[in-house]
Amino acid sequence: MPLLNNLNITKMKKLVLFITIMFMTMTYGQEIKQIPQINVNGEGKIKVTPDQVSISATVETKGNNAKDVKKQNDEKIDAVLKFIKKMNIPTADFKTKQVALNPQYDYEKKKTSYNAIQTVEIVLKDLSKYDELMEGLVQQGINRIDKVSFESSKLTQYQSEARKLAIKDAKSKAEDYVSVLGQKIGKAITISDNSQIYQPQPMYAGMRMKESADAGASNETLAIGEIEITANVSVSFILD
């Protein structure tokens, strides 16, 4: 008999625990459903003219003798660095990023050749010098341009402004929706943010000069475009 009583007590405890959990779950679900809210998306967009350009330029040298290949590559990169300094670009705005000397074996000819690479990264803050810099780099030995990216030195500031515009847009949309229902929006309970940056690549106006020659267009070589900074947000507001 004591054993049966103990079993019954255990079963009763489990039953009470199960009912308690079910009650708490149902209550929690009802509380969630009882919170009126609205979910909206907002977008903030700012277009700005770049005020600097980031350039990644490489000297690549090939040959059959490792010592000669490295020497030739060093001489070319030395000339490139001297030219950059001659352009009065601050030392803090250019640096050597990659240096490599790799053997390359040709299985058909059964010969080993060598490939030397040195890459220089430059931040040019005076865009009026862009053409002169690019032409000079090639003349001094640069034979590969890996990247040309037009940027803004005030990117962080513009990103902040775009985010604020996105939140304002989301709030305005929410107010439009609920005003028809005679309600008002309350506090924001969730915010999801996703910002995107478009870095324009150079477009050489010379390719279009034939079309605009009759209009008397000036002999410009570069159209840098604009940077488009976009912030997209999803916001959930409580309804009052």
Description:
The protein has 240 residues and is α+β, with helices and mostly antiparallel strands. The chain has 5 helices and 7 strands, in the order αββαββαβαβαβ. The strands form 2 sheets. Strands 3-4-2-5 form a 4-stranded antiparallel sheet. The relative contact order is 0.21.
Give the SSE map.
Blueprint: H1 2-33, E1 37-48, E2 52-63, H2 66-86, E3 94-106, E4 111-124, H3 130-139, E5 144-151, H4 155-179, E6 185-198, H5 209-212, E7 227-239
Antiparallel strand pairs: 1-7, 2-4, 2-5, 3-4, 6-7
User: If strands are numbered along the chain, what order do they take across the biggest sheet?
Assistant: 3-4-2-5
> What is the residue-mean pLDDT, rounded to a whole number?
82
Structural class: alpha+beta
Summarize the main sheet: 4 strands, antiparallel
Quaternary state, please?
Answer: single chain
Fraction in helix: 25-40%
Number of strands: 7
What best-fitting shape do the alpha-carbon axes yield?
elongated
Radius of gyration: 33 Å
Measured distance between first and last alpha carbons: 60 Å
**Which spans have pLDDT < 50 for at least 5 consecutive residues?**
203-219
SSE series: HEEHEEHEHEHE
* β-sheet strand percentage: 35-45%
Number of helices, where a helix is a run of at least 4 consecutive DSSP H or I residues: 5
